[in-house]
Design brief:
With 250 residues, the protein is an alpha/beta fold. The chain has a single domain (3-236), classed as Rossmann fold (3-Layer(aba) Sandwich). It has helices at 3-8, 10-13, 19-27, 38-50, 83-94, 109-115, 129-142, 171-174, 186-189, 193-212, and strands spanning 30-34, 54-58, 99-103, 121-124, 146-152, 155-161, 221-226, 231-236.
Length: 250
């Protein structure tokens, strides 16, 4: 690190669990954030502020007025812009030293097969089961750790799936790809504004833990956040040996 970086990240360097070595890991890391909406708007800025060297934002959607109640990377002037492009402008103003790439397209198998060999961790900040299952399947295939978060109405959840570890479950161990879940959205159900900030910030924290390698990330655990009563519940989860995605991987 140069002198400017030492000063910018000095509050990290002071932490024994991070120190200079941990910060240098962040500076050379490449993080993929899929979804630049509510969750991504909270996760990506903390990754950038923390000094993650390269962030790739993937989103095919455009900023709408209804997004501004919670998607804090975007402003009134961003309406009509692609969310990844709008997010890039925000992140570059926040930390010019971070490289931000954007992909203004919907994530699919072909795109992730191309991207995942180049990244150190993935943050799933999307809002539907089909996309989450696709991201999980490709992360298992390429052995890339995945931080999965979701938020709707007053309820959020977050977990880490790291197929590099033999005991780690994957998303499909909990939610089978064969089950038919009813897709619901913020547009029809509503969402409490700070909830996406809480879960998105936690996703960033988990990603930093995995990248640096300290503490105990949420591998094999899922946190459930209830914003109505400010209660956090933890569910222990284990790998399903019969899982359609990771059952034969280990």
């Amino acid at each position: 690190m140069n002198d400017e970086q030492l000063l910018r990240y000095s509050r990290h360097v002071l932490l024994e669990d991070i120190d200079v070595a941990g910060q240098e890991k962040l500076l050379t890391a490449h993080t993929l954030v899929i979804g630049a909406g509510g969750l991504g708007s909270a996760a990506a800025p903390y990754l950038a502020a923390a000094g993650v060297g390269k962030i790739t934002l993937v989103d095919h959607d455009q900023v709408e007025l209804t997004n501004l109640q919670r998607q804090i990377m975007h402003t009134q002037e961003s309406i009509g812009q692609n969310k990844a492009a709008s997010g890039k402008s925000f992140l570059q103003r926040l930390n010019p030293g971070v490289v931000v790439d954007t992909i203004e397209a919907k994530a699919d198998d072909s795109l992730l097969d191309q991207l995942l060999p180049t990244v150190n961790i993935v943050l799933d900040c999307t809002d539907n089961f089909a996309t989450r299952h696709m991201i999980n399947r490709l992360c298992v295939k390429h052995q890339v750790p995945l931080v999965s978060g979701s938020a709707l109405r007053f309820d959020g959840q977050i977990s880490v799936f790291d197929s590099r570890h033999k005991t780690s479950p994957c998303y499909a161990c909990i939610f089978s790809p064969e089950e038919q879940f009813e897709e619901v959205s913020c547009a029809s159900m509503g969402i409490f504004s700070p909830l996406v900030g809480i879960i998105g910030a936690m996703q960033a924290a988990q990603a930093l833990q995995v990248l640096i390698g300290f503490g105990e990330p949420l591998v094999g655990r899922m946190l459930l956040w209830n914003a109505r009563n400010t209660q956090i519940d933890e569910i222990r989860i284990s790998r399903n040996t019969g899982c359609l995605v990771c059952g034969q991987t280990h």
